[in-house]
Amino acid sequence: MQPTILKRIFLVLSFLTFSLQAFSYQIETLDDGLYRFIDDRHRSIFMITKQGALVTDPMNTAAATWLKGQIKERFNVPIKYVIYSHNHSDHIYGGEIFDDPQTVFVAHELAAQDIYNTKANTVAPDVTFKNEMLLRLGSKTVRLAYHGPNDGRGSISMFFEQQKLLYVVDWIVVGRMPWQKLWSYDIQGMINSTEDVLGYDFTTFVGGHANIGSRQDVARYLRYLQGLYSQVTAAVLDGKSLELIQKTVDLSEFSDLDNYEKWLPLNVEGVYERLMEESGIGWRPDIVRP
Ligand SMILES: [Zn+2]
Known about the structure:
The chain has two domains: about 150 residues, Ribonuclease Z/Hydroxyacylglutathione hydrolase-like (Metallo-beta-lactamase, Chain A, 4-Layer Sandwich), CATH 3.60.15; about 90 residues, no CATH class. By secondary structure, the chain is α/β, with parallel strands linked by helices. The longest helix is centred in the C-terminal third of the chain and has 23 residues. About 0% of the residues have low confidence. The protein has eight helices and 13 strands. A hairpin with a 2-residue loop joins strand 3 and strand 4.
């Protein structure tokens, strides 16, 4: 093949790749300076004020590059803060794109410890906190809080107080079932943390995955987790097998959630495994095992 033809094919392919990539990113306007950034399955929030921008999870290098370009083009304000939701790389890689002397990186101390120990390939946080931290930008405040273990390490909630908007990644999801076998989740911790954030005066919920929801959606999600956990626990204490529990658990009031049919048996298996291992029921002398 002639070099010019090869070059043309290469150019067309590069353009297509670029278009597909750019097409998968979206920015949605929310309320009073808040925006939701979408990269395929992942979502983060950013806030624009006259004093600068506050960005949450950068997700990955390509997504962060696109987002930074959009913030520059649309708002042209300096990026003052980058906040990591927790330690998992699919949410917090790409931090280097925002690395700048005027940008402060914030995370929970357990997320920071994990980023440091595992040499995660993103920017290490400049500032960490233990329980709660209040960030101010212009007239806006964002309350960061740790509610105990729930998913990964140092996973926090972010409450945008003036907009009454709560952002949580991974341990609350609305419109969709919790992820498959609940890998890496502390299920009792998810219940405790979700009960905790329902104490905030929020009206809008944005998750790191899936849909935007209301306070009622978060309360309903909590009811799902509680129902799942209590039904599986009761069945395990009754000496039922995993297969039987998967057939008999009744959470049909949640059948409208995405992936309900496919992921319900996996959610059950996830709780069953935690009960066997974390709660030690697998070696409890007083429980009859099938
Ligand atoms: Zn996630």
